[in-house]
Design a protein that fits this description.
Layout (H helix, E strand, L loop, with lengths): L1 H20 L1 H10 L4 H29 L2 H18 L5 H15 L2 H12 L3 H56 L3 H10 L2 E2 L2 E2 L6 H10 L6 H16 L10 H19 L9 H20 L6 H26 L5 H26 L5 H14 L3 H4 L5
Antiparallel strand pairs: 1-2
Helix pairs in contact: 1-6, 1-7, 2-3, 2-7, 3-5, 3-6, 3-14, 4-5, 4-6, 4-7, 6-7, 6-8, 6-14, 7-11, 7-13, 10-14, 10-15, 11-13, 12-13, 12-15, 14-15
């Protein structure tokens, strides 16, 4: 089990590392191709848009065919796309390539999360594995932006994209030999066979869909959507704040504080013994209150506020994944985690747009507070009151 988990963490780390390493690269690269600022925004945003159909297909595909083939496909094809990206010569080509990349990588997260949930022996171990996924994601987000900027400084755009592409391809080939899926699929069906007493069945039927909708109300997905939206608002607004001083380096340090805060709570493994629903709701409430404090210029310094935001994220993200896994049978993990990824993608797309249009009228951080509080107020408490992580 541990060996498979390490392989899955490796795949996700490499994918997230490659993705985040491109953040400081893409805008300058698009400018070098002659892209206008408005078009650069489209290039960056199209990734989230094309993520949505990929997530939908991934959910049903993972449940029907298993995780391994989608992990291998996503890594290898994404690597090939990066190799092609290194050869583009105009902004429109870069837009097309980014849209393909968003679609292809949409398969990876649901596939890996589904398999992580399957290899666990009980719900507490599921929580720990999900926390490990959050830790890997956070480490990649801390290390990769600086690494991407360093690569461009040393190798240039073409060689940097080529190197990142080959790393993905090699990792995809390793996945062919490193992932052993069948034994965990069989054991997961025995360990997590039902949702609230409803027996799971391999084939998808109308009664199965009714059970799924009853077990996990659609309103619950407002929490990850609001969470991602609030983070999109933060990522848009932070570089524009006076504390950032218009410096890319200073902005990078401020973003790193968020990741460092997340690492702190992700390292507190005892938190995983607390109910996943309680961690999700209380963590979201704490995050909303932090954003409210920032919107009214509370006396806590920005650096401390960002660290607290990271700590809240370190609690919420693995808790949401654990809660969804505990509410679903093993045969439906793919769909559940694809819906989760879709919620994150929609929120990441909406957040910056909301911040850009409303920042002249009200504090974007207040909008982040409203999003989170609205999602919490709509949370169907009765459904989750008996759920234990």
């Amino acid at each position: 089990m541990l060996k498979t988990a390490i392989w899955l963490y490796l795949f996700m780390f490499v994918a997230f590392f490659d993705l985040h390493a491109q953040y400081p690269i893409l805008s300058p690269f698009a400018i070098s191709l002659g892209a206008a600022p408005s078009f650069i925004g489209l290039i960056l945003g199209v990734y989230s848009i094309t993520h949505l159909p990929g997530n939908l297909l991934a959910g049903y595909g993972v449940d029907k065919y298993g995780s391994k083939r989608f992990i291998v496909f996503s890594l290898i094809v994404a690597g090939i796309v990066l190799l092609v990206q290194s050869r583009v010569t105009d902004p429109w080509q870069l837009l097309y390539i980014r849209s393909i990349s968003g679609f292809v990588l949409a398969f990876l997260s649901p596939a890996c999360l589904s398999m992580l949930a399957k290899i666990a022996k009980d719900k507490v171990q599921q929580s720990k594995l999900m926390a490990g996924n959050g830790f890997v994601h956070t480490m990649a987000s801390v290390l990769s932006p600086a690494a991407g900027a360093y690569l461009v400084a040393k190798l240039g755009f073409v060689q940097s994209f080529t190197l990142l592409g080959w790393i993905l391809i090699i990792t995809g080939v390793l996945a062919i030999f490193g992932v052993k899926e069948k034994q965990y699929t069989e054991s997961a069906a025995e360990l997590f066979p039902q949702v609230h007493g409803a027996p799971s069945i391999p084939q998808e039927t109308d009664s199965e869909n009714e059970t799924l909708n009853r077990a996990i109300p659609w309103l619950f997905f407002g929490i990850p959507l609001a969470l991602s939206c609030s983070q999109g608002i933060l990522f848009f607004e932070l570089p524009l704040m006076k504390e950032a001083s218009g410096s890319i380096l200073t902005s990078g340090i401020l973003f790193s504080l968020v990741s460092l805060g997340a690492l702190v709570t992700l390292s507190m493994l005892f938190i995983n013994r607390i109910s996943a629903f309680l961690r999700t709701s209380m963590g979201s409430l704490a995050l909303a209150l932090i954003f409210f404090g920032m919107s009214v210029n509370w006396p806590i310094p920005l650096h401390v506020s960002l660290f607290l935001i990271g700590m809240a994220k370190g609690v919420i993200y693995p808790a949401i994944a654990s809660l969804l896994a505990s509410l679903s049978s093993a045969q439906r993990y793919g769909r559940i985690f694809s819906f989760l990824s879709i919620s994150y993608s929609i929120g990441a797309f909406i957040g910056p747009i909301v911040a850009g249009h409303l920042r002249s009228h009200t504090s974007p951080f207040f909008m982040a507070f409203l999003c989170l509080m609205l999602a919490l107020s709509l949370l169907p408490l009765k459904t989750f009151k008996t759920v234990q992580a």
